[in-house]
Design goal:
With 294 residues, the protein is α/β, with parallel strands linked by helices. 36% of the residues lie in helices and 23% in strands. Strands 2-3-1-4-5-6 form a 6-stranded mixed beta sheet, with helices on both faces. A 3-stranded mixed beta sheet has the order 7-8-9. Bound molecules: guanosine-5'-triphosphate and magnesium ion.
Length: 294
């Protein structure tokens, strides 16, 4: 039996719905999703396995033109790497997102000799006549891409995206064990779930100034005991994250625990601490220890 395997990398600007598509394809909540831009900070593999195939889908940080601090530079390094190892690309735009507002990477993949599926997402919130116009605009601008309008949220046409991806897998051996569905360890998902709740519960710069680290993860027969530290960048941010009488951190912890119980299919005991690590987003050593750099 022939075996097919390959890397399919999902690129696009922040907030267009890349992680929503990844999760819809994998059928699990692997990547966190929020209405805020720059939710995803890492390259996350979602791996789909079949008897004769392994599809390694990369969810990536949304592309920004001008990184403002070192963490964003590292996020864009993940994007750069993904330009080098793709067997096929998905380039995602939202309906209404202009051709001329696409970043440099859009122009780069146009010139590469690698198949591209250009997805126009969020068709559930756009008029059919306007959608036709957008399909036409992108078809003219990117003639060798296949163009597919979808709603990742409502899973409309996601199966068509999957069929396209399957057809692009080259023949080859699997890259990962066949029972693996991601490259990231369990602890990574703990930090991501908490980050999602932070993004949802705080405003302005707070979510972007937070990093989550798992201090301990002890799995017992019927419970997992987890302790995490939320690092903020400045002293003034700590009381905001904690909230009056601990109210905010309690809410974040409760919401995160519920999601973790679904993810791990086990009871979770979660302890959360808040600490200050000045200016960590611009500090190479902190970024390395948080896994943003080699
Ligand atoms: N209406 C609608 N909303 C969508 C659709 N797909 C995603 N969204 C919403 O768009 C927002 C961003 O979705 P994400 O999947 O986090 O987007 P992303 O491209 O991964 O964003 P970054 O990680 O920040 O780059 C969320 O509020 C989603 O619920 C869709 O098909 N229709
Ligand atoms: Mg994302």
């Amino acid at each position: 039996m022939k075996h097919f395997s390959g890397f399919i990398n999902i690129l696009g600007k922040p907030n267009v719905g890349k992680s929503t598509l990844m999760n819809a394809l994998i059928g699990e909540k692997l990547s966190i999703i929020t209405s805020k831009a720059q939710t995803t900070r890492h390259r996350i593999f979602g791996i789909l396995n079949g008897d004769n195939f392994q599809m390694v889908i990369s969810d990536l940080p949304g592309i920004i033109d001008k990184p403002a601090y070192k963490m964003q530079e590292s996020m864009m390094d993940f994007v750069k790497t993904s330009l080098e190892d793709a067997d096929a690309f998905i380039y995602m735009v939202e309906a209404g997102d202009k051709v001329e507002n696409q970043p440099e990477e859009y122009q780069l993949i146009k010139k590469m000799n690698i198949p591209v599926l250009l997805i126009i997402n969020k068709i559930d919130i756009i008029e059919p006549s306007i959608l036709e116009e957008w399909v036409e605009l992108y078809a003219q601008d990117f003639p060798h891409a296949s163009i597919l309008p979808i709603s990742a949220l409502e899973k409309a046409n996601v199966n068509m995206a999957f069929d396209w991806m399957m057809a692009k897998l080259p023949e080859g051996e699997p890259y990962f064990d066949k029972d693996q569905f991601t490259d990231k360890p369990e602890r990574f998902f703990v930090t991501e779930i908490i980050r999602e709740k932070i993004l949802q519960n705080y405003t302005k710069e707070i979510p972007y100034s937070c990093e989550v680290v798992v201090e301990s993860f002890k799995e017992e027969e019927d419970i997992i005991r987890i302790a995490v530290v939320i690092y903020v960048e400045r002293d003034s941010q700590k009381p905001i994250v904690i909230g009056k009488g601990g109210s905010m951190i309690k809410k974040v912890g409760m919401e995160a625990r519920k999601d973790m119980e679904i993810f791990f299919q086990k009871k979770i005991f979660l302890e959360t601490y808040v600490k200050v690590l000045p200016n960590w987003r611009n500090n190479d050593r902190s970024l390395r220890s948080f896994g943003y750099k080699e």
